[in-house]
Each structure stands twice: as C-alpha cells, then as structure tokens.
Amino acid sequence: MPGENRTRRPALALLAAGLVLVLGSCAGQGGQSVSRPQQPPSTPAAAGSFDAPATPPTPPGFEVGGLPGRVAPPGAGSPPVRLVIPAIGVATRLVRLGLEADGAMAVPADYGRAGWFAEGPAPGQVGPAVIAGHVDSRTGPAVFYRLRELRPGQAVLVERADGTRLRFVVEQARSYPKASFPTADVFGPVPSAALRLITCGGDFDRARGSYRDNLVVFAGLAASAGAGNRG
User: Fold this and answer.
1) Separation between Cα atoms, residue 209 and residue 200, nearest integer Å
2) I need a labelling partner for 228 at 20 to 30 A (CA). Which of 20, 102, 136, 150 fits?
C-alpha cells in the first residue's frame, strides 16, 4: 500500500546504509571480485593479510551499523534452514542473523556456514531476502568463496523449516565499491520474492583490514516444492 511503502523506505535506507558497512568488511580475510580470479590465501601476495594472532578472534562483522529494529513485513514466512548452490558446490545449514547490541548486523561465527538476515523478509516472501557469508578466512576459503562464479540461469535452492524447498534462479552478479553501495537496488522493495547473496569482494585494504567491495548475486523465485516432492 502507498502509505506502507512510505514508512518502509526510511527503514530500508537505514538498513542498507548499515549493510554497506557490515557487508563491506569480512575483515582480515582474503579478497574476491567478479572480474578477476581470487588469489588463494596461501600465495605470498596474500600471506600478510592472513597472519593470525595466537588466539583466533571472533569473525568480524561486515561493517553494518545503524539498522532499524525490524524491516520484515507482517506475517513472517517459514525460516530458511539450508542453502544449496549446485553449480559452485555450496551446501550449508543456515544460521539466523540478527542485530548486535550496537545495531550492526550479526554475521556467521562459522566461516563454513552462511546466514539469513532475519530482520528482513524470509526467502519466499515478497521482497529481497538476504543471505550473507564470508568469502574466506585466515586459513583458507569460506562458504561463499566461489560465489563470483555464479552465472545467470543457475539455480539456488533454499530449504525452509516447514519442509518446502524454494528454487531461485540467478539473474545477475554485481560488484560494488562500499563507498557507493546501491541501497535501493539491493534492499529496496520489489514486487515478487527475491534473493540476495552477499559477500566481500575486490581488493583487500590492509590499512583498514577489510575489502573494498561487496559482491551481490541477485536471484528471483522460480518454483517451490513440498517436503514430499524434493525431486
């Protein structure tokens, strides 16, 4: 409804401003971009950014702050529990990502798992559902290391707690500098169920200890199946 959209836009603006910060970091990990191959963490060029202290720190945030309390539409859908991307070998349980005490978006503590941002739409609901994951860690590739390899037409499967499985189809992948992240394009309202897969990308900024870009894969809902029809 028009009035609802007017109220939601400021919240989405705050959300995206925060997500630009949060999803900009993956601090202290390796780099990735859409246009060029990722340099493995074990190479000499990347070794400096992978020097870990004696006690590994908690995985850093994606530099997201200033988020609203909640932007999900009323009547939350069934939460997602598993993500499968056959083309790049991803099969991961999904953790629930909320807000930190300082308003930043939480990130998966396990580099091998992706997480659903539960303060936004659930996959299958109208709007852009967000699933985030690390690109790599100080010891090697993480869950979304190969995200840049996805191409239009490839499938992204999301299994939900109610037993249904959603099939999304990749539409495009874009890399954005953190300083000019397209808030409306990534987090703004859309008329159908959509999915955004987000990780870090671009060159690693050693001075800031984070990446300069974010990689975003855009996908749209193609089909759903019940628990008894998994194919």
Assistant:
1) 12
2) 150
